[in-house]
Structures are given as C-alpha cells and as structure tokens.
Amino acid sequence: MKILVVGATGMLGEPVARQLQADGYTVRILSRDMEKARAKFGERFELVKGDVEQPDTIRSALAGCDGVHINLAGGPTAAAYDRIEHGGTATVAQAAAAAGVPHLTYLSGFSVNEANRKDNETNAKFLAETAVKASGVPYTIFRATWFMESLPLFVQNKRATVIGKQVAPLHWVAAQDYAQMVSNAYKTAEVVNKTLYIFGPEATSMTEAVKIYQTAVRPDVSFSTMPTWLLALMGSLSRDAKLKDIAQL
Q: Other CB atoms closer than 10 Å to residue 170's CB: what's the count?
C-alpha cells in the first residue's frame, strides 16, 4: 500500500512519513526541494518533485497511490494561508478524487469551526476541511491541539516568550503519538469520513508548558511574557505580517 505524504519535510509531516514506513507502507514524499527532502529522508523513501500550486505535479505524484496525507503550512498573511493551506489542500483533494485515491488524511486544528474563522489560519483550515469533504474522497480529518514539538519555537533571542495571558488548559500532544494515529487510520474503516479531535491526557496551560520547557531544556534562556497589544503594535510598525497574525490568535 502506497501513501503520498504532502508536507513531509515539515515538523509534523516528517514523523507521519517515518511512522507510515515503519508500519510497512510504501511512502512517497512530495517536495518542492528535492535536495532538502533527500538530505532528510535519504534513499529509503520514494521522492517526487511537486508543488501544491502546480496541479499537474500533484496528479503525477498521486499515480498508483492508495492514500494521501496532507500537512501544509501557509502564512503569515491571509492571502498566503488561503493560497497554501486552503488552495493547496483543495488541489490535492481534487487530484486525489480524479485519481480514485481511496483515502485522504488531513491535519487541521483543534479550534477549527465556523465561529473561529476570524483568524486567518483557522479560516484557511476551515475552508481546507470543506474542500476535502466536497472532493468526495473518503477522508479522515485530524483536529489536533498544540503539539509539544512547538515548544522550542517559543524561544527567540535568548528568551522563552509567551504572548498574552495564556492560562487556559491545553492538552498537549506528541507528534509521534499523532503520527501513529494517522498510520492506524489507513487500516481502520471506522474512521473513514470522520473528524477526530486529537489531544493528550494532561492539561497544562501554555504559560506553564513553556516554563517547564525552559527550565528543563533551555535553562540558558529567561522566561518572559509580552502583551498582545505590544506585539500587534510591533507588527504594525515593522509591517511584519507574521507578528500581526500571531497577535490575533
């Protein structure tokens, strides 16, 4: 059974590709940058050059595949999220339908729903989910909470920084556990055409989680918080779309 992984070189796509292979699947990896993909995966994986903004390359990559996993990251602007996260997912889903691929899995977000569409990333994921369902391909959507692997991203310029008052409990999940769930989905009929919420067993606020990470892994940096208004101001003054988008979360 051959699975195409779209977005395999990313932080959350790589463990899925490796878990699928470990579980006996033949894994084909789609990448715009073949050198990067080859450096990360070596010769044990089938590598194909392609781009979600070039439909012909997607159609070619899907030839002979029994499944496709989509893990895309757009941004930081609304247009970029829509082009990659939404448009790219829609392109893959439509190509999968035309190719008769029997199962598609897609990584979405825990907060994705109609009411939360004011956030650019969430809106793009909502539209991507809609495109997946409209394609007619049997699907499994994973609405995952925050991943533990994202904690290093909070460390910038010798500081572990949390934006705003992040005291709400979050059930952090490990990427490896999620990867196993994706792999299991391809042999579990009960999850076809289902949206699954993925979360860990223990609730820890973002502030607590970053503090724990900083103390245990990065004691060389200091912990700090930043008001959302200050981040938004910095984004406006610097015209940094990424900062402004983070401030909206």
A: 18
Residue 45's alpha-carbon distances to 36, 140, 167, in angstroms, are 13, 24, 42
CA 205 to chain CA mean position, Å: 21
- 14 φψ region: left (φ > 0), alpha (ψ -120 to 50), beta (else): alpha
Domains of the chain by range and CATH?
2-248 (3.40.50.720)
Residue 222 has pLDDT above 60, yes or no: yes
pTM over 0.85: yes
* Residue 169 pLDDT grade (very low, low, confident, very high; cuts 50, 70, 90): very high
Residues of the chain with pLDDT > 70, as a percent, come to 91
pLDDT at residue 236 in the model:
47
Q: Is 100 exposed, middle or buried (0-12, 13-18, 19+ CB in 10 A)?
A: exposed
d(CA 92, CA 56): 10
Peptide bond into 15 cis (omega under 30): no
